[in-house]
Design goal:
This is Tubulin--tyrosine ligase-like protein 9. InterPro entries: TTL/TTLL_fam (IPR004344). Helices cover 33% and strands 20% of the residues. It is an alpha+beta fold. The strands form four sheets. Strands 11, 12, 13, 14, 15, 16 and 17 form a seven-stranded antiparallel beta sheet that branches. Strand 11 and strand 12 form a beta hairpin. Helix 5 crosses helix 12. The chain is globular, with a radius of gyration of 23 Å. It binds adenosine-5'-diphosphate. Adenosine-5'-diphosphate binds next to strand 8, strand 14 and strand 15. The site of adenosine-5'-diphosphate (ADP) has 20 residues, from strand 8, strand 14 and strand 15.
């Protein structure tokens, strides 16, 4: 291992011959105390490292990354759970900036039709810097609803809907006054985004989808799509007549949990399988196939939009949580991509989903070096992109344009291979309940 001379650098993953021989186990570290800890602690051969101890695998939070990544030396085999500049995709303003740029590039290089495949995010303006552009757009479409979202917060915090410019004047004033005191209070950036006024409703309620995508490398792009995920419902019937009611408009679990109608036992989630079956029974299998392949397009295009800007470090992987909203025409919209999707379980079903998801993530990350590199499926993950589209069939993909290509994605399809794993974590949780 070549350690930089700078003494402030921290080294991880010992490589000196003797020490490597002694490392019979994988030393992991994490700051998260949720389903992740259960999975890591039960993985055979993995041992927990605390404080300043050496580690081979670190599921870190993004604040640790920001402060430490650049001063940390990592050995070849070491893995860490974020890319250095993950925010290019996971901050609302950067995501939109990158998508707009990628769209322009596609239009130049491949034409209008190809560029139109990027039209899956609602019209968005960064505030305050694009305020004047926003006003222009606002005046073109009087009466429609907009949503203001702080770029770097989550769980629905700081979000509000509006229809009149007057409604955001207070926010503008705040931004301007803090501009005068730049050094003291940094201005909080927002995005103003066109509100999807016609969400697909089930039982009169709005929902959005949480889908998991695991990226192992950006150059070349190698991404896996998880079969399971869920729809998060609001507890209150949808209406456009009360735009101030966050229980109607924001489907975040963190928001809905505080609603007076929330039932902790029932929760507010449907697994993706149930959702897919519901849609198939209402609209037929073809409409569902189209919707799900439109979602595949969102995952791939959004990753491609940041492929050249993300620092593709071989030590890094990232498990993204995509938030997708579907409208009444069955068009999926990308709302945001989360770098730290919640790994806290809100119910038994949710616990099983998240523990299996994490277990399968660790299989793909493959610290144990068990994979051959030719796998198209690992647990609930299907290889979606491997420097190009991945076909469900064996052999090289047929890209002849004859329409024979079938993508290797199975979002919302039955994830039968995980039944055993589910059983294991179910009994683990029952043991925990008994002992507490
Ligand atoms: P956060 O990071 O705070 O969760 P999101 O962008 O995911 O922010 O928005 C929170 C919720 O607000 C979403 O889950 C969705 O229910 C609703 N929402 C956000 N943007 C839109 C939009 N453009 N149209 C309709 N609903 C939206």
């Amino acid at each position: 291992m070549s350690r930089p001379k700078n003494q402030n650098y921290k080294g991880h993953g010992l490589s000196k011959g003797k020490e490597r021989e002694q490392r019979a186990s994988i030393r992991f570290k994490t700051t998260l105390m949720n389903t992740l800890m259960d999975v890591l602690r039960h993985r055979p051969g993995w041992v927990e490292v605390k404080d300043e101890g050496e580690w081979d695998f670190y599921w870190c939070d993004v604040s640790w990354l920001r402060e430490n990544f650049d001063h940390t030396y990592m050995d070849e085999h070491v893995r860490i759970s974020h890319f250095r500049n993950h925010y290019e995709l996971t901050r609302k303003n950067y995501m939109v900036k990158n998508l707009k740029r990628f769209r322009k590039q596609l239009e130049r290089e491949a034409g209008k039709l190809e560029a139109a495949k990027c039209d899956f995010f609602p019209k968005t303006f960064e505030m305050p810097c694009e305020y004047h552009l926003f006003v222009e757009e606002f005046r073109k479409n009087p009466g429609i609803t907009w949503i203001m979202k702080p770029v770097a917060r989550s769980q629905g915090k700081g979000i509000f809907l509006f229809r009149r410019l007057k409604d955001i004047m207070d926010w503008r004033k705040d931004a301007r006054s803090s501009d005068d005191q730049k050094d003291e209070i940094p201005v909080e950036n927002y995005v103003a985004q066109r509100y999807i006024e016609n969400p697909y409703l089930i039982g009169g309620r709005k929902f959005d989808l949480r889908v998991y995508v695991l990226v192992m490398s950006y150059i070349p792009l190698r991404a896996w799509l998880y079969r399971d995920g869920f729809a998060r419902f609001s507890n209150t019937r949808f209406t456009l007549s009360s735009i101030d009611d966050q229980y109607v408009h924001l489907t975040n679990v963190a928001v809905q949990k505080t609603s007076p109608d929330y039932h902790p036992k029932k929760g507010c989630k449907w697994m993706l399988q149930r959702f897919r079956q519901y849609l198939a029974s209402k609209h037929g299998p073809e409409a569902v196939e189209t919707l799900f392949s439109d979602m595949d397009n969102i995952f791939v295009k959004s990753l491609q939009s940041v492929q050249k800007v993300i620092i593709s470090d071989k030590h890094c992987f990232e498990l993204y949580g995509y938030d997708i909203l579907i409208d009444q025409t069955l068009k999926p919209w990308l709302l945001e991509v989360n770098a730290s999707p919640s790994l806290t379980a809100s119910s038994q079903e949710d616990y099983e989903l998240k523990t299996c998801l994490l277990e399968d993530t660790l299989h793909v990350v493959d610290m144990e070096a068990r994979l051959t590199g030719r796998e198209k499926r690992v647990g609930g993950f299907d290889l979606m992109w491997n420097d190009g589209p991945v076909s469900r069939e064996e052999g090289p993909p047929d890209l002849s344009g004859m329409g024979n290509f079938v993508a290797n994605t199975h979002l919302g399809c039955v994830n039968d291979r995980n039944n055993q794993l589910r059983q294991l974590f179910r009994s683990l949780q029952n043991q925990k309940k008994v002992s507490s």
